[in-house]
């Protein structure tokens, strides 16, 4: 709380949000890379007949996703960090800090610390995605063909949801018996 009070006293409310734009510049492409690489690498390991992703494939895809998350937007993270630790009356913008880093340290300056970050990201994201897939199996069934409510992994579930929406639109709220019958029919 002391930090917040001192920041507000010295810089006003904008001081609290210093680096927010840079965080968004990092987060948006980072998350695109994270999920995209996980799905892409996971598809290379996924069993074509059953749709199952073996543990080794999940771990490798998760590790790859973590490294991709930090590789793509790392320069934005470097700029964000520099902006957040700056103090004083004058707060330069994202592009000004970016130019300053490139001019004084070169492109390598934008990636200072990347190796340590990537080495940390690989095992932690492997664990995140492994846990996600494990929970998905525990909560929805072991085979993707048995998944209910996760259309990304099962087109049959997506079809059931579409049919339920159509039924509700035509006749009002379905009873539990009707919903159970609709699911059993597919």
Describe the protein in words.
- It contains 10 helices and no strands.
- It has helices at 2-11, 13-16, 20-45, 55-71, 74-85, 94-105, 107-110, 114-140, 155-171, 176-185.
- Helix 3 (20-45) runs antiparallel to helix 4, helix 3 (20-45) packs antiparallel against helix 5 (74-85) and helix 5 (74-85) packs across helix 6 (94-105).
- The chain is extended, with a radius of gyration of 23 Å.
- The N and C termini lie far apart (56 Å).
- Residues 146-151 have low confidence and may be disordered.
Using only C-alpha atoms, the radius of gyration works out to 23 Å
The main sheet comes to: none
The count of β-strands is 0
Beta-strand share of residues: under 5%
Q: State the helix count.
A: 10
Brief sketch in words of this structure:
This protein is mainly α. The protein has helices spanning 2-11, 13-16, 20-45, 55-71, 74-85, 94-105, 107-110, 114-140, 155-171, 176-185.
What are the defining features of this structure?
186 residues, mainly alpha, 10 helices
Q: What's the helix and strand layout?
A:
Layout: H1 2-11, H2 13-16, H3 20-45, H4 55-71, H5 74-85, H6 94-105, H7 107-110, H8 114-140, H9 155-171, H10 176-185
Helix pairs in contact: 3-4, 3-5, 4-8, 5-6
